[in-house]
Design brief:
Elements (H helix, E strand, L loop, with lengths): L8 E5 L3 H13 L5 E5 L2 H9 L15 E5 L7 H8 L4 H4 L3 E6 L4 H8 L4 E6 L4 H11 L6
Parallel strand pairs: 1-2, 1-3, 3-4, 4-5
Helix pairs in contact: 2-3
Length: about 140
């Protein structure tokens, strides 16, 4: 397992369980020593970050280094999550790399995501180990890079 400084947790905010399974496999393939947490909608994701609801015990739920955020979800979609996320205190946001993930081919979704200051990139589903590795190399460079 590879330990990456600043990456103790990867948070998937995605409502589709099959997609979460595929994304977890892609992460596992990289042998990254990081816990993978799943929230099924934006509301759960906010609860995770703010240690509310089912996530009251912060000691059990590490701060994510990366969030992979789906756009289309029930209860609170990715855009609504971003709106609420941008209102959080800096301590709750930390230095999280937030990546929008979507199966949408609508170019407006990509443009909108990339115009958000807190969004580091836009990825089409499904995530692959190669795509995740590229993100890790870009946002979590080793000491020799």
């Amino acid at each position: 397992m590879k330990k990456i400084p600043g990456l103790d947790c990867i948070l998937l905010i995605e409502d589709d369980r099959a997609t979460n399974f595929i994304h977890k496999l892609a992460i596992k393939e990289l042998q990254v020593d990081a816990r993978v947490e799943v929230c099924l909608n934006g509301r759960e994701g906010l609860d995770y970050l703010t240690c509310q609801g089912a996530y009251k015990d912060n000691g059990q739920y590490p701060r994510p280094g990366i969030i992979f955020l789906d756009i289309n979800m029930p209860l609170m979609d990715g855009w609504e999550f971003l709106e609420a996320y941008n209102q959080l205190h800096d301590a709750q946001k930390g230095n999280i790399v937030l990546m929008m993930v979507s199966s949408s081919n609508n170019p407006d979704d990509q443009r909108r995501a990339l115009h958000e200051n807190t969004v580091a990139g836009f990825i089409h589903k499904p995530l692959t180990s190669a795509v995740i590795e590229g993100i890790l190399n870009r946002h979590f460079p080793g000491p020799d890079q």
